[in-house]
Amino acid sequence: MHELSICQGLCNQLGQLAREHGADRIRKVEIEVGTLSNVVPELLEQAFAVMRERVPLIAEARLVIREVQLLAHCDGCDSDQKLDQFVFQCPACGSTKLDVRQGEDLLLRQVELEIEEGVR
């Protein structure tokens, strides 16, 4: 399960953000997981739960995962198509000349920090 190592990297990044902004805690972490990112959202949630027990900074953090559907541009009919399966064929015209536009990435989209008043 490589989601645990992804989560460890995420915790490192969150720690850096917290230090930069003088935050005491992370309240919310919002991530986008693309269909082709090779990350299983359910396993990422489990890994985050494990890390919550080990990393005080995120002990109370809520993880929000937004799944991003695969979107490709078809050169054959010059249109953007949502692909429901991993079949790289345009559902409109049958062309296989597709360029992936979204759905490959794993992105840290938003972080909610808690900063104690009077400290900074």
Short description:
With 120 residues, the protein is α+β, with helices and mostly antiparallel strands.
Describe the structure.
The structure is a single chain. This protein is α+β, with helices and mostly antiparallel strands and 120 residues long. Helix content is 28%, strand content 34%. The chain has 2 helices and 6 strands; from the N terminus they run H-E-H-E-E-E-E-E. The protein has helices at 3-21, 41-54, and strands at 25-34, 62-68, 70-74, 79-83, 98-102, 106-114.
SSE layout and pairing:
Layout (H helix, E strand, L loop, with lengths): L2 H19 L3 E10 L6 H14 L7 E7 L1 E5 L4 E5 L14 E5 L3 E9 L6
Helix pairs in contact: 1-2
Q: Mean pLDDT, rounded to whole units?
A: 92
Helix proportion range: 25-40%
User: Biggest sheet, open or closed, and with what strands and sense?
Assistant: 3 strands, mixed
The helix-and-strand class reads alpha+beta
Major sheet: arrangement of strands: 2-1-6
Classify the beta-strand content into a percent band. 25-35%
Categorize the overall geometry: elongated
Rg on CA atoms, Å: 18 Å
- How many β-strand stretches? 6
Distance between the termini: 38 Å
- The number of helical segments is 2
Helix and strand element order? HEHEEEEE
Low-confidence stretches: none
